[in-house]
Design a protein that fits this description.
By secondary structure, the protein is α+β, with helices and mostly antiparallel strands. It folds into 2 domains: about 90 residues, no CATH class; about 100 residues, von Willebrand factor, type A domain (Rossmann fold, 3-Layer(aba) Sandwich), CATH 3.40.50.410. About 40% of the residues lie in helices and about 15% in strands. This is VWA3B protein.
Length: about 210
Amino acid sequence: QVLVSSSKWLQIHGLKRNKLSLSQILSQIGFQHRRDYVTTLGKLVASRYADGLFPQYKSAHDGSVYNLTAKEELILHFVDCLMGAIELYKQRMEWLTSESRQIFGVIQERCIVIVLDFGSVAPAEFDLCRDALSMVLVEQVTQIAKFNLIRVAQDLTKWQEKSTPVSEHTVKSAVAWLWKLDHMTAASLTNSAEALLEALSDEAVSS
């Protein structure tokens, strides 16, 4: 799937965009039972000609009442559309909470620098971190434009001097570099700040 935010995804696949919100469906399968102000009487009067003629639905959201006039075929059509939307939402949720996205979220920037601060993790956890980073490089970084890796340490280490265009070769190179890193003792807070400043000094990186 394309790396887009959920708000952008909903602009395409959301219920309102596809005219499947409750109010939109009600307006297509019936008409609103209205109360209008009658000047001669000086008060609000509800229309009564539809009473008993149609099934009615009262919206819990705003209390409005709709007279339902649609045939069964149209209602079943909306049932199918809503079931399809539910399935699409489930797929999106499963995708958002799987693999590298459950750790890093969805990368939306076109150019990124990943700052690696392993802290005082044990050797086994160090390998787990590298597994996760390898996963995000292969699954998400392959879909953006440029990237770089900086390792927080007493002597700051960079994969490349500046962010590099993404290609199959550069991603493989970054993964190989990642797995050649040695396990070290925790760096200081000053080292972490220096690595972040170095990342932000790359002109291609917006944030």
